Amino acid sequence: MEIDSEDKTLEEELDDEDNNNNDNGDQLPNPKLQNPKLRSDSDSDSDSDSDSEDESQQNLELKTLETELSGNPANYDSHAQYIKLLRKMGEIDKLKQAREAMNNVFPLSPDMWRDWAKDEASISGPEGFAGVEKIYDRGVFDYLSVSLWCDYLNYIQEHDPSVRECSPDGISKAQNLFERALTAAGLHVAEGNKIWELYREFEQAVLHTIDENDIKAKELQVQRIRNIFHRQLSVPLVNLRSTLLAYKAWEVEQGIDLDAKSSEVDGLSSHLASAYQKAMEAYNARAPHEEQISMQNISDTEKIQNFMNYLKFEKSVGDPARVQVLYERAMLTFLYQVIYGLIILAIWTGL
């Protein structure tokens, strides 16, 4: 059983060859493609030989990696290659053991946690929900990853019956998870808005489930969505102006008289207008740093220096939560570097 492979099957390769021949009118048709009987015996033998060779090669690679890990369980690359090979071969039991073994020594990357969760979900089906949930929960603990948090939140909404059906317990569970996500990643300047938007979408979906005659419950839910908008608009995040426009359009839907096409603060309460303006100023102060740490095609030394400059700025502002988020972003950026530990140490000692 192969969990995930991009290798072409023999049939697909033959189809490609057929298409190439059809594109070239000077070549004679391949008789093996024209007559399945002519290719059945020889191709079957060829397929069997090829599969056997591939399996032998994979088993050899597997034993080599197992020997390397037995002698040096702290070899990150060997762990990663071993997991990749087991996943390709569909060795489910060994794969789970390999992931646990690696996680006993190293934090797994967000992509590794994502693959693990998806594999578990495909293997176990609905009955394995609790196991997949636990994998996501462990994953978001290892590293700050907005994309992994979003996958986790989406998985819970789609596969937890209590959340999907918007039962009181399900709503409470989802809200607690969203708040955890905001605490962990809601200050991420470049990506934190994704979690805020998912939160609003969830609460909007809850609003649609409330009986039209239950005026009080609807009013409370509308206020809850409004509060989430207000909280987001007070945080320096990318696309703040778009969020303001979305908020104004939403308020118009609630019957509030606002210019939904204006990105200015006209019509907002003085408290919200002030919070938004401060957030915009804070974002504009961070935008050059965000651009620098996002630069491609520069040396690792320059990347480290850009993070150090940004961290110095955040430390001067004096918000420990922002310093922590940026530090975790640096860890993720340099995750695959051989001098990973030295890079993080250099960042901190350089402050």
From TrEMBL:
GO terms for cellular component: nucleus. Keywords: Membrane, mRNA processing, mRNA splicing, Nucleus, Repeat, Transmembrane, Transmembrane helix. It comes from the Eukaryota. It is found in: Nucleus. Residues 1-20, 43-56 have a biased composition (Acidic residues). It holds the Pfam family Suf. Residues 63-317 form the Suppressor of forked domain. Residues 1-59 are annotated as: Disordered. GO terms for biological process: mRNA processing; RNA splicing. The chain crosses the membrane at residues 330-348. This is Suppressor of forked domain-containing protein. It comes from Populus alba x Populus x berolinensis.
